[in-house]
Amino acid sequence: MSRSLVWCALVVVGCALPTSYTRNGGLEVVSSGRLDCVEGSMCAPVEVTAFPFVDRGDLAEAPQAAIRANGCDWDQRWEGGEVVYEIRTGLPGVLAVQLASGPGVQAFLLDHDAEDACVQVGPTVDAEVGPGTYWLLVDSEASVTDGTFDVQVDFRATSVPDDALEPNDTDEEAPEYWLGLFESHTIRATLTPASRLDWYALQVEAGAVFEVEVVNPMLELHVEDDDGEALEVHQDAEGRWTFGDAVHNRDRDYWLRLQLTEEQPDTAWTDYTLRIEATDTNPDAWD
Description:
Layout: E1 14-16, E2 20-23, E3 27-30, E4 34-36, E5 46-48, E6 53-58, E7 66-69, E8 82-89, E9 93-101, E10 105-111, E11 118-122, E12 124-129, E13 132-140, E14 148-157, E15 176-179, E16 184-191, E17 197-204, E18 208-215, E19 219-225, E20 230-231, E21 234-235, E22 240-246, E23 252-260, E24 270-281
């Protein structure tokens, strides 16, 4: 049920599945032969990148496949539409799931790598988990006519490293990125209680117009120039942080700092995607 379990690229409209597929002896997928790679399917799960996570869906419009997991009391009822979520935890803690739906809908928490894959089943889940990858299935009986649901996923770390409250506030080990004309970088990383702050060193080629973007309401983006002066960044109502600048007749250095907001608890963690792109050339670069 991971990208390697049912291996079809996201750009592909559909992928053929065998009648039965087993991974690590703990999970089995049974399909009629075709499964569309739409968001929420086994080959394109919805990624839970921050907590609390809230989603609303309709199983009547979701892909259908029968999934079996060792340790679950599964039967033929659960062959209606389902939505698959991928959850990654970097620390041991408690995963809590609240599902609101009509009858015939259930939440299944599965351990991606365990022989006994089934962790917990029910409209509510409150399970102690270790670091790793987990799958949350919102599944339905084949007879369900109203498949609308609301789901909330939360995570509370139960074991935090001793240095969790000491952010890595040094730029000495910041990864360095060079941005040439019309080049781009996409950086995916995780902030945990032990690393509430990330630095990036960015050098931009002379004459480039570029933009920095990260979308995550749990984070703040700060940008400094090579003299240590703070530069203006922008945030919209959706938690989208952006910074843009036009470089003149010499390469220019910038320091990017991403950090969890002060409102986030000591146990908070989140994934983020940082996009850096040179979008144009500066016509005034050599004036």
